[in-house]
UniProtKB/TrEMBL annotation:
The keyword Membrane applies. InterPro entries: Tetraspanin/Peripherin, Tetraspanin_animals, Tetraspanin_CS, Tetraspanin_EC2_sf. GO terms for cellular component: plasma membrane. Gene3D superfamilies: Tetraspanin. It is a multi-pass membrane protein. CDD domains: uroplakin_I_like_LEL. Belongs to the tetraspanin (TM4SF) family. The keyword Glycoprotein applies. It comes from the Eukaryota. This is Tetraspanin. Keywords: Glycoprotein, Membrane, Transmembrane, Transmembrane helix.
Length: 247
């Protein structure tokens, strides 16, 4: 009976990890194709920094799943205790990393408040042409989500660096509306926007826009996270049962 159970676990692990292996290979192939594609798709992705960064994230996830599936498949079908141990440790590290991220997010949840972002923007923002990482990140966010500041254009009234270096502008260029979503598109009216013309500005704050855009995915993300943790626990238990059962 013990042998039948171990045999069942062995083939379940192989099938489960074979699907992980295929998913990883698919993600890896798609990510590499997007980055290296010579037919023009790469240029389309490069226009949007978030999409360009997403392509590398897809490659990283694909490589991780590819390696994980490979270890699980080979360890199960060959009954190799060394590969099963590596598979278990790999899953354990991922599980602990996810658990640590959840704990840190809970501890530092106050640092994600509206007041915190508003204070940081007023203190560190340096304008649309700045190469400083904080400012360039905010510029990308404002352009991508078509928003302005944390709460709205009024956030830049007390922005120290921005006011001292751009005394004639009430908002940065990234708050101005454009004729198309492309970052390189023409402004509807750049001068009127910079001088405070609200009809030419994105008047809604980024904090509200981002929360509204993510709200529909919160429950889905929570269910997905619970499902992933359950699968990881199942994979670790199965690997250890098979590891202990191999003579």
């Amino acid at each position: 009976m013990e042998g039948d159970c171990l045999s069942c676990i062995k083939y379940l692990m192989f099938i489960f990890n074979f699907f992980i292996f295929l998913c990883g290979a698919s993600l890896l192939g798609v990510g590499i194709w997007v980055i290296l594609d010579p037919t023009g798709f790469r240029e389309i992705v490069a226009v949007n920094p978030l999409l360009f960064m997403g392509a590398y994230i897809v490659v990283g996830m694909g490589a991780l799943l590819f390696l994980l599936g490979f270890l699980g498949c080979c360890g199960a079908i060959r009954e190799n205790k060394c590969l099963l141990l590596f598979f278990f440790l790999f899953i354990l590290l991922i599980f602990l990393a996810e658990l640590s991220a959840a704990i840190l997010a809970f501890i530092f949840r106050d640092n994600l408040s509206r007041d915190f972002f508003t204070k940081e923007m007023k203190k560190h923002y340096q304008g649309s042409n700045s190469s400083q990482i904080f400012s360039s990140t905010w510029n990308v966010v404002m352009t991508t989500f078509e928003c302005c500041g944390v709460n709205g254009p009024q956030d830049f009234e007390d922005a120290l660096y921005f006011n001292s270096h751009y005394p004639d502008d009430l908002v940065p260029e990234d708050c101005c509306r454009r004729t198309s979503p492309s970052r390189t598109a023409e402004f509807l009216s750049k001068e009127e926007c910079l001088m405070g013309g609200e009809i030419y500005q994105n008047t809604e704050g980024c904090y509200t826009v981002i929360l509204n855009s993510l709200e529909t995915y919160v429950y889905l993300a929570g269910a997905l996270a619970i499902g992933v943790l359950a699968i990881e626990l199942f994979a670790m238990v199965s690997a250890m049962c098979l590891f202990r059962g191999i003579q």
